């Protein structure tokens, strides 16, 4: 195989993706376009609620449409992101003050308009994003506080009606450690199923660290990762690593870059060890544009291409993990 996606398909899996922001960087775009490496992408911000429905029933589809067009032109799948999330939510929603029925109708309108518009291009949808606290309880949000946990199955039901062909995912971070949050997402899968509503997968964001940093790490070992993935597939859903990046305390050194390559290899191997791990998405191409240093100063260098858009050892580690038998 010539690249990541080629290798992944050769192993009988569906896709390798990247988060994508079309910012006019031709080198970055060419890497994302290369079909040998990527056959899928996730729009990094353009389909989020504040971008797409900034005012009530006021939809601004132009930016998201660019990604749909890019996907068609470059023959990519889109992992669409995300319909119901407490963050990047416009104030008119997050400030609340709605009764239960009104908020459900707001959610319904949002999901039908957005998922409906892109029903032919969204291979997968992150229907509900980050509904859990670290201890596995539900996060306080306008959705949970107004509707209760039923907001989750209700969102999945609307999404299936609006976009019947898309695979529907619950997506969250820090599910990779086999702790209470891992169990919380299992509970969510069972909750949706108990409503007789279809849920097709769990997305594990995999914002990981190769070493202990002030905000993460150490990396879960391969066995733990496999156990976590199987905990979901046993519930009859697929799993995907949806937003992989593996950060370090910067600056990078040759030694850290080697450890990072190993970390990427471990994550890839864990996916390939579990039959229903259908794909993996890395959260961006180049370290130059990653969200990490802005949010966690002193951490970063988490992706497969460095700040000068040169391939890092992590790329080879990831490819090695995909190919390993
Ligand atoms: O576009 C505006 C620009 O006009 C403005 O001048 C600038 C000033 O702050 O902000 C720009 O928007 C930023 C946007 O990224 C686009 O660059 C937002 O401030 C910034 O908050 C936003 O960050 C995104 C973040 O989600 C927001 O929560 C990151 O790009 C994106 O990588 C990150 O992705 C999330 C996933 O959606 C969910 N899981 C975690 C992951 C990492 O945080």
UniProtKB/TrEMBL annotation:
Name of the top EC class for this enzyme: hydrolase
One Pfam family it belongs to: Glyco_hydro_10
Gene3D superfamilies: Glycosidases
Involved pathway(s): Glycan degradation; xylan degradation
UniProt keyword annotations, A-Z: Carbohydrate metabolism, Glycosidase, Hydrolase, Polysaccharide degradation, Secreted, Signal, Xylan degradation
Matching SMART domains: Glyco_10 (SM00633)
EC number: 3.2.1.8
Localization: Secreted
Primary localization: secreted
Domain annotation GH10: ranges: 16-321
Any one Gene Ontology cellular component term annotated for this protein: extracellular region
Similarity remark: Belongs to the glycosyl hydrolase 10 (cellulase F) family.
Name recorded for this polypeptide: Beta-xylanase
Source species of the chain: Cladosporium halotolerans
């Amino acid at each position: 195989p010539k690249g990541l996606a080629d290798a992944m398909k050769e192993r009988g899996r569906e896709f390798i993706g990247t988060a994508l922001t079309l910012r006019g960087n031709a080198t970055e775009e060419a890497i994302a376009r290369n079909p040998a490496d990527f056959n899928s992408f996730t729009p990094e911000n353009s389909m989020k609620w504040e971008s797409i429905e900034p005012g009530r029933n006021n939809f601004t589809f132009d930016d998201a449409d660019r990604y749909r067009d890019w996907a068609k032109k470059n023959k990519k799948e889109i992992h669409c992101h995300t319909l119901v999330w407490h963050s990047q939510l416009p104030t008119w929603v997050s400030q609340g003050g709605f009764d239960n029925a009104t908020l459900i109708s707001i959610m319904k309108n949002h999901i039908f308009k957005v998922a409906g518009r892109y029903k032919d291009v969204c291979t997968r949808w992150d229907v509900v994003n980050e509904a859990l606290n670290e201890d596995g309880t539900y996060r306080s949000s306008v959705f949970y506080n107004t509707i209760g946990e039923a907001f989750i199955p209700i969102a999945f039901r609307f999404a299936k009606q609006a976009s019947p062909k898309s695979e529907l995912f619950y997506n969250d971070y820090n599910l990779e450690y086999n702790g209470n949050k891992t169990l919380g997402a299992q509970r969510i899968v069972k909750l949706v199923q108990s409503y007789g509503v279809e849920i097709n997968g769990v997305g594990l964001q995999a914002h990981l660290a190769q070493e202990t940093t002030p905000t993460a790490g150490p990396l879960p070992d391969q066995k733990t990762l496999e156990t976590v993935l199987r905990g979901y597939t046993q519930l009859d859903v697929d799993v995907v690593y949806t937003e992989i990046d593996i950060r370090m305390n910067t600056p990078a050194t040759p030694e850290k870059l080697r450890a990072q390559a190993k970390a990427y290899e471990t994550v890839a191997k864990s996916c390939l060890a579990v039959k229903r791990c259908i794909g993996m998405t890395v959260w961006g191409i180049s370290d130059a544009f990653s969200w990490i240093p802005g949010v966690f100063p002193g951490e970063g260098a988490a992706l497969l291409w460095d700040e000068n858009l040169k391939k890092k050892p992590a790329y080879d580690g990831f490819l090695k993990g995909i190919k390993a038998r």
